[in-house]
Every structure is written in C-alpha cells, then in structure tokens.
Amino acid sequence: MTLGSSRLLRFLRNSEAYEKSASFANAESRRLRVRIRKMASLVALVVVYGLGMTVYADSTTHDSRVRVPVLVCSSFTLFVFLFYDSLAYIILSSCSAVLTQYLRVELVALGSCRTPRHVEQVRLRLHAIKKLKCSLNKIWHPALAVWSACLILVLCITLYAIFDGHIGQPEVWLALAYAAYASMSFADVAISSQCLSDLVQYLHRTVDPEALCFTGGGFFRLNKALLVSMAGSIITYAVILVQTSDELADHVDVSRLV
C-alpha cells in the first residue's frame, strides 16, 4: 500500500510537471455522457449502502442496549468497505479523464503546428502522456485483474441466487445492487480507457506515415519494402533460370541458332 501511494504521488507530480511544461489549461467541462455515468454509479453506491444498512438492521438483536452500538459499527464498517472498494474506480476514472484531456489538447496543438520544431514538441509531450499512462497502469494493474475476476464471480453468484428462487431475500437484493454498482463502475473505467485508445487511433489516422510515401497508381508504395520485394522477385527468377538452364541446353540445338 505504501509503495502504491508513493507511485501515485509520483504520478501526480509528473502530471503537474507536464502541465507546467505544456502550459495546460483545463477549460473543458465534462461531457453529458460522462456525468450520467458518474451519477448512475453514485446512485447505485447509495442504494448499496442503504440496502446494506437494512440488512444489518434486520439481522441485529432487538436489545436496545446492543442494537445502537452494533448499527453504528456496522454503518462505519460498511462505509469503510465501500470507500476502499471504490478507490480504484475513483482514481482511475479521474486520472483517465485527465489523460484524455491531455490528448485532446495535444491533438488541437498538432493541428496548429507551423514548424517542425512545434511538431517535435507535440511528439515529446505525447510521449510524456504515454509514460504517465504506463505509470498509472503499473499502480493499478493488480487491482484491475482482481476487480474483473471478482465482478464476474459476484455476477455469477447473483444470477444463481435469482434463478434458484431466492429473489425475495434482502441479501440477494443487496448482492444485485452491489453487482450493478460494480458493473457500472467497471464499465465507466473501461469506456475511459477506450477513449484514450480512440484518441491515439485518431491521431494515427490523421498523421498516417504510410500516406506520405509515393505510390504507383495506388498499386504499391515506393519504400524500402518495395525494394526488398523487387529483389526477391529477381532472385527467384534467377534461381529458376539456374535450375532450368541444363534442361534448356539439352533440348535446344545451339548450332541452329548460329
């Protein structure tokens, strides 16, 4: 945990250094779809907390001297569990949103480049964004692996309980609400990750290196690979000639050609 905290602090410092070097200004507000996903996850989390407290209240003893302390401890324990369980979602979704804004700013900067020096500066900043993403992924890749496995397990158990006829029990509703929250939060992180990939793909399509090569009527590109292909064709033809030269000498009368 301490190692992960130090890495996260290093990531935040590197992000701050990038923003200073790039003169980054956060002038873009979150889109409506992103806000809807965040609100849906928050509502699901509140529902999970409410159902959890209901289950705890029904399962505790009716002795008033013990009931109140148990409910207080249960509410605090459930809050700590949900907060700890949501750390990966909160940090990853926030950091991926920031990285997405970094990429959008660099795409705009690339479109306004006028000199090769400006293009090189954009390339270096894109490389810095890639390093930020890799450092963030190194922190959370074990949590992502466990998160995905636990999500599949919770969904399977919940579906089994529903089809087994236990849909009326409060515990099943609690598991269903938690599965919905975990699914929405995991989907939100996955969509944010895909957004990063889509922006890079857009950049690759905008600046396609292969499109800068000369072409022969669209049939081939004039590059080193074409030279290798041509050399391979010539070598293949030469090998065929060597293999068939003896047979040609046997069947052709050279005296008639003189």
UniProtKB/TrEMBL annotation:
Keywords: Cell membrane, Membrane, Receptor, Transmembrane, Transmembrane helix. The chain crosses the membrane at residues 39-57, 69-92, 139-163, 175-196, 225-242. InterPro entries: 7TM_chemorcpt. It is a multi-pass membrane protein. One of its GO terms (biological process) is sensory perception of taste. One of its GO terms (molecular function) is signaling receptor activity. It is found in: Cell membrane. The keyword Ion transport does not apply. Signal peptide: none annotated. GO terms for cellular component: plasma membrane. Its main location: membrane. It comes from the Eukaryota. This is Gustatory receptor. The lineage of its organism: Eukaryota, Metazoa, Ecdysozoa, Arthropoda, Chelicerata.
